[in-house]
Specification:
binds 2-acetamido-2-deoxy-beta-D-glucopyranose; globular; single chain; alpha/beta; beta-glucosidase activity; 8-stranded parallel barrel; TIM Barrel; glycoprotein; 499 residues
Length: 499
């Protein structure tokens, strides 16, 4: 009888295994890009200049390979090919971003560019015709230059400028776009930008810029969400959130648990608590911690802005789901006296005297800030649920960098290991994850790394004027996951036809 029992048990095990690798019915897969990283055509027609155009032209040496996004993937001209790739992968949706200055050359709605609108209409219509939904980011870092010259995200009026821009794009595209993200990664827009000076507009403002910007992006997001809720939701029935960049932070040892929690509130909470928590406002402990840091640095009082009660209510609850970009993890411990602390977000945590480390068994990628820790994505989502309740989570970016080459076994392993953790979140932790977005559809201008590192499912030949795209092995793998609705993909998955 033993052999029969063994056969039955292994059949049960195989059955469970297959089932456990299946995604829930209705789970959706997408891939993402961003306007400045793919579009090129920086000076066509009446497009206005944005802060990335100016930053890379004025400071070519800040980009590793001295490159820029003037042409990038030339998606402005290759949009039909982009749609074809999205379709052959079987994507349920494509996440793209709108270039503010391409639509509103002055940044303000006094003038709408016909050519800019036509480009996005072609792209959106083409996707819809193939049955692919659009997830549209309204702002992915390319601020029109005239608004930057008035202070950009440090000018409180930005909330109104952004609301006006949002009204234009909801009006133009809202009939076909049902998933909106107001702002991509505000922690990069604010903290990385003003604390490091190495992203556009390249303006360093330590201890001040990031804090002011932090408040203004929240107000801008909130106004754009409320506008949709009030004037567009009943007509278009879409959903709006923002995409936060979440670095998962753990204590380096038990004695740093409180520090780790404060660091999570600093990294995630400053851009989430005001929107997603029941009570709203800044996260617990943060105002006090930053005030202390400011006084220590010699300021007479805290540089961190407070919210009025009215502002707390304006921002609180302005979401229809949680949009999460996730890449990597860190361990945190107390800094040693005199220890050199680098700045947020991929450095240390100077305001909290926290030193970041990585675990020995997290393998390195080709990018200095990126270590692989698949369990981090699951722990991050469990933390979100514990903090903000049972929200719907859409993973709006996840992916890994490699060097050039079509045989990207490490990327396949990455998607497999991270998606396994997503399945565990859903099935073991009861987290309501409904969307997964691969970053990125194709290689593109990777900000400070230029074209030296590649995140694409498709390789792009940047030497070729046509910017030819070729599927990597990971593209076949991802297409097969989507087709199979499971991580249990057939062994012959590379036989799928991609062009
Ligand atoms: C646009 O920029 C390119 C460089 O990327 C330049 O060669 C071209 O002359 C510019 N076109 C116009 C109309 O200014
Ligand atoms: C501190 O770290 C920064 C960034 O890595 C480096 O440029 C600087 O030289 C370091 N300073 C000291 C005193 O080690
Ligand atoms: C790293 O080691 C920890 C502790 O042993 C373990 O829980 C975790 O699963 C390991 N992670 C990886 C990526 O191997
Ligand atoms: C997940 O969230 C969506 C949207 O709110 C909801 O329709 C769905 O029922 C939720 N699923 C679970 C398993 O809670
Ligand atoms: C890709 O590389 C791996 C590891 O080097 C190798 O096992 C595999 O056969 C290669 N696949 C292709 C299609 O070349
Ligand atoms: C893989 O092999 C199976 C069985 O031979 C076949 O039915 C299926 O069509 C193949 N898949 C692809 C993508 O060619
Ligand atoms: C839903 C689906 O197509 N499932 C298939 C995934 O791949 C495994 C292994 O080839 C098949 O057994 C499933 O039927």
């Amino acid at each position: 009888m033993a052999w029969l029992l063994a056969v039955v048990l292994s059949a049960v095990a195989a059955g469970c295994y297959a089932k456990d690798l299946d995604f829930p019915a209705g789970f959706k897969f997408g891939a993402a890009t961003a306007s400045y990283q793919v579009e090129g055509a920086w000076n066509v027609s009446d497009k206005g200049v944005n802060i990335w155009d100016k930053f890379v032209h004025d400071n070519p040496s800040v980009i590793k390979d001295l490159s820029n996004g003037d042409v990038a993937c030339d998606s402005y001209h290759n949009w039909e090919r982009d749609i074809e790739m999205a379709a052959e992968l079987g994507l349920d949706y494509y996440r793209l971003s709108l270039s503010w200055a391409r639509i509103l050359p002055t940044g303000l709605p006094n003038k709408i560019s016909e050519d800019g609108v036509k480009y996005y209409n072609n792209l959106i219509d083409g996707l819809v015709a193939k049955g692919i939904d659009c997830m549209v980011t309204i702002y992915h870092w390319d601020l029109p230059l005239p608004l930057q010259e008035l202070g950009g995200w440090t000018n409180p009026l930005i909330a109104d400028w952004f609301e006006d821009y949002a009204r234009v794009v909801y009006t133009l595209f809202g009939d076909r776009v049902k998933l909106w993200l107001t702002i991509n990664e505000p922690i990069v827009v604010c903290d990385a930008t003003y604390n490091s000076g190495v992203t556009a507009p390249g303006y360093l403002s330590p201890d001040l810029g990031a804090y002011i910007c932090n408040k203004h992006v929240l107000l801008a997001h909130a106004k754009a969400w409320r506008l949709y809720d009030k004037e567009f939701r009943s007509k278009f029935n879409g959903r709006v959130s923002l995409a936060n960049h979440l670095l998962w932070i753990e204590a380096a040892s038990d004695k740093y648990e409180d520090l780790a929690e404060l660091a999570r509130q600093n990294a995630v909470g400053r851009y989430s608590h005001p929107i997603f928590s029941k009570e709203g406002g800044w996260p617990p402990g943060i105002e006090e911690a930053i005030a202390k840091a400011c006084i220590e640095k010699g300021y007479p009082k805290s540089n961190f802005p407070s919210f009025t009660l009215e502002e707390i209510e304006l921002v609180r609850g302005t979401y229809d789901y949680y949009g999460m970009n996730h890449y990597t993890s860190r361990l945190i411990r107390d800094a040693l006296p005199g220890e050199n602390l680098t700045v947020w977000p991929f450095g240390d945590c100077p305001d909290l005297h926290g030193k970041m480390e990585t675990a020995e068994n997290w393998s390195e990628s080709v990018v200095y800030w990126f270590y692989l820790n698949p369990e981090g994505i699951r722990k991050q989502m469990a933390w979100l649920k514990q903090q903000y309740g049972d929200l719907e989570i859409m993973i709006t970016e996840n992916g890994m960098p490699t060097y050039a080459g079509l045989n990207d076994t490490t990327r396949i392993d990455f998607y497999k290991s991270y998606l396994e953790q997503v399945l565990l979140s859903i099935k073991e932790d009861g987290v309501n994850v409904t969307h997964y977005t691969a970053w990125t559809l194709m290689d593109n201008f990777e900000w400070g790394d230029g074209y030296t590192t590649k995140f694409g499912l498709y390789e792009v030949d940047f030497e070729d004027p046509k910017r030819t795209r070729t599927p990597r092995e990971s593209a076949y793998y991802y297409a097969s996951i989507i087709k199979n609705h499971s991580l249990d993909v057939p062994a012959n998955y590379t036989d799928i036809t991609l062009s």
